[in-house]
Amino acid sequence: PLLLPPPSPLSLSFSLSLSPQSMDSSKKLPSKEAALFRNVIKFYELKQYKKGIKAADAILKVFPDHGETLAMKGLTLSCMDQKEEGVELVRKGLRKDPRSNVCWHVYGLLYRADHNYVEAIKCYRNALRADKENLQVLRDLSFLQIQMRDTKGYAETRRQILALRPSNKSHWLAYAAACHMGGDMKTSTRVLQAYADSLTDEDPTRAPYERSELILYRTMILVEGGDIAGALEIVENNKDVIVDGLALREERARLLHLLGRLSEAETEYRSLLEINCECHEYHAHFRKVLEEQWGGPDPEKMIGVYDELEKAFPHSLAPKRLLLDFSKGDAFRTRADRYVRALLHKGVPSLFMDIRPLYNDEEKVSILERLFLDYASSLQSNMAFPPLEGVEAVKETPDTYMWVLFLLAQHFDCIHEQERALAYIDEALRHTPTVLELYSTKALLLKHCGDYEGAAKIAEEGRLLDLADRFINTEAAYFALRADMVDRGEQTAVIFTKDGGGGEQSSNLFDAQCIWYETRTGESYLRTGQYGKALKMFLRVDKHFMEFVEDQLDFHTYCLRRGTLRAYISFLRMEDRLFGHKYYRRAA
Questions:
Q1: Second label for 379, Cα 20 to 30 Å away, from 275, 327, 512, 583?
Q2: Would residue 297 be called left, alpha or beta, if left means φ above 0 and alpha means ψ between -120 and 50 degrees?
Q3: pTM for this structure?
Q4: What whole-number distance in Å separates Cα of residue 519 and Cα of residue 484?
Q5: Secondary-structure percent of the chain, ordered helix, strand, coil, rounded to 5
Q6: Model confidence over 239-276: pLDDT tens digits?
Q7: Going by C-beta distance under 8 Å and a sequence separation of 6 or more, which residues neighbour residue 434?
């Protein structure tokens, strides 16, 4: 649903349908010209701009001072890349008819196209002075109010729209969301309840989903308003109505936890783990509930609980991995040995990233290092892992030894022993020179050593092994930019653009909003003292983020029409935090 086509600047589905009050000035026209004026609006909405201009000119030949026709002609010209002439015509039309809501509405649309929302809102308010019940102007005003986060004004405008058209579903949802964002939880809940009571089962495919989403949204509002017991009551009373069974269980577990009903919350989270034992979010909530029941962290008890989970879900990795967080000493060594060798046998490249959080404990780091070195020694001499007590040693395939060398290289890099890390990664490359992960890791090691050109060279060698791999291609471009080889980095980065490196390469990456590339390129120019080019790249990042803000306008109607209110509120809050994103901070 987020992949909507971008609208053209002045055709953002803002129709200009005229209410009876707004026809006052056009009533001064004879019937023939009045019909032509209606055609001007129709042609504008259909994007038949040349026909609209022709119809407007026919009116202006007879009535050259008709303000609304001048305004509509100016708006149409603005859509035909004749902006200056169009704006001047709109202003002329407004001077000729300053009390016309059509002229003010059109003037607001021009300001809105220039992203001058403050002035556009003023124009819409002037239009409403001439026609207080013009639904289209009210809708356009509400979109800009929420865009500017004027929550009080947005709520009032949505209330007026709802009063005018209470039969439209999206107006009820928009008013409820407006009250929610303005902090009026009680009114929002009442509006949702009134709307839910009006739903019928005429549409068997749509109504169940709408009811379900409304209930979950009501619980969200009640929780934020502090009425957790009320939210749980709604969930309990509507179990049969909520169609998203997983969301129902997640919400019920969360509410039970917030209410302090810990034993029930524990039971609910256990049922969620039965559904998906690999979800670390479920595990985090489950452990928090247990710790609150116990009065604080208790590693011994937690180990016992997760031993049971490991037996209950023998094929799940999460309980085995989480046990490493709680274990110490010999128990940690035994569990880590069993966990790591199983993944090395399978050849899992991401093993080190999985165990990387354990490196905050120096004791565990030393245990892991001894394990890894024992693996390498045993595999090199016997082609098997060190034998476990009561378990017969099994011969491993040659690539297992390569994965152990790979793991050792990452280990020593993490503890800042780059020379040993490079020795192990070089040995792994001599053993199996066709594994892409080895080249990526060596390039990273060389970067940590300060050899940026060497890192770029190794990354390029890895890229040439698989020219269809987009990730390796991106990585090679990154290392080239870090070595200040901007031209080479650009040539590599554009390989996967739509032109495949042809045409204007930089514009392809800009159109794709390739922020990582622009940030790294700007930093490269900054290091080499090319400040003008660096500033150009950083300003591109700023422009992308401004586009993200502008793109909100496409979703104010879409999300309300689809009834996805929880996602809509989450989306708005994400936009409010947008400029705290690490890429923006880095470029700024």
A1: 327
A2: beta
A3: 0.85
A4: 13
A5: 75, 0, 25
A6: 988 999 999 999 999 999 999 999 999 999 999 999 99
A7: 465
Rounded Cα distance, 341 and 185, in Å: 54
Contacts 24+ apart (CB under 8 A), 398-403: 398/431, 398/432, 399/347, 399/432, 400/344, 400/345, 400/347, 401/376, 401/431, 402/428, 402/431, 402/432, 402/435, 402/438, 403/344, 403/347, 403/348, 403/349, 403/351
Instruction: Please state the φ and ψ torsions of residue 561, each to the nearest 5 degrees.
Output: -65, -35
The phi, psi pair for 395, rounded to 5°, reads -65, 135
Q: Are 252 and 232 in contact (CB under 8 A)?
A: yes
CA distance 264 to 472: 48
- Cβ proximity of 185 and 224 under 8 Å: yes
For the chain, the residue count is 588
- DSSP single-letter state for residue 385: P
301's tokens: 């008890």
Q: Residue 571: phi, psi to the nearest 5?
A: -65, -45
Spatial CB neighbours of 584, under 8 Å, sequence gap ≥ 6:
541, 542, 545, 578
Banded pLDDT at 11 (limits 50, 70, 90): very low
Does the pLDDT at position 12 exceed 70?
no
Count of beta carbons in the 10 Å neighbourhood of residue 336: 21
